[in-house]
Model the fold of this input.
Amino acid sequence: MSKWKFIEEKVQGLKDDGVYRKLPINRGPCDHVIDLDGRRVVNLSSNNYLGLATHPRVKKASRDALDRYGVGAGSVRTIVGNQDLIEELEDLLAEFKEEEAVICYQSGLNCNIGTIQAITDKGDLIISDELNHASIIDGVRLSKADKAIYKHNDMESLEGILKEKRQDYRNVFIITDGVFSMDGDLAPLPEIVKLAKQYDALTYVDDAHGSGVLGRSGRGTVDHFGLHGEIDFIIGTLSKAIGVVGGYVATKQKVKEWLLHRARPLLFSTALPPAATAATIESVKMLMESEEHTKKLWKNAEYFKKALKELGFDIGISETPITPVMIGEDAKTMEFSKALLEEGVFVSGIVFPTVPKNKGRCRVMISASHTKEDLDHAIDAFEKVGKKLGVI
Ligand SMILES: *Cc1c(COP(=O)(O)O)cnc(C)c1O
Done:
């Protein structure tokens, strides 16, 4: 008997459930239309919300840095990987986010894993929304603190835990996504801040899908709610709307000093490559100069969502450009996604374990780079496939 039987059985299980898939190959840039497995298709599945991943200004900044600094940082930050570009980016992000200090990591996932572990300790309690992103869950797992989960966006559930447990712990951290990536709904930050004050807790918001999307020029969910200075840790990613790669936490200067000594991704993993850091600096500058990109994103999102609603699709409770088109059964969701591809539109089907079983959806990510023709083409494809599969 093969010693790999234990894995073979798992893979076979995926096939039996109708959710096995091969990764599609994109043979070019991540643009509004992509060359996927040799076909030109409208791309409705990237997090490149503002189209900055391919913007000429961003590419030029990256090329210039490549010539000047080479391709790799050559070391972790705490040895000799702390290139001046990273310091420049951190100062710029602090200014953009209107917070005291920013620390950059190699990705948003790294940021959550490294930050949560470093700021919490035995004798602390982490209270986490049940739908928080996987990288928060992993960060919480690595922490020595005790954990509690509250029902999604349910302030009674959160208060119940605070009331029952607050007095047993030194520090209590309330952790939530700012925008929930599977449904596009927002955390009720004003209420969370109120409870945090009432029960003397710290607040931690992962704004990966809010950064570059919500608030003035994409300053994020905290800015959207007018809560500057009220959230203790604001996480952002540089990999989504900013169009490059990396993650960061905006917080107090003294927290930065501690993280530079104890956040494990900064100590044990090589720093961001300079071409990526320079590209990010340019992207953030572009956001600070003009609201043009975020405005176009919202205009496109509103156009698309209105059309799908009018066709009779259930597009959930999204308050952002994330548009989950609810299909239901997991296998049918994958079938829907495949049929859209036949029509020249790529939307990934999202099924268990990313969302609960039979809450499958084709999650559309609208971008500022989509043209009206792209969106109309996609709307027609949704109508055709939706009727064929009996969804509308
Ligand atoms: C995407 C995402 C991350 C991970 O960001 P990367 O920079 O891609 O690693 C973290 N948190 C949330 C809420 C996300 O949506």
Notes: The chain has a mean pLDDT of 96. The radius of gyration is 21 Å.
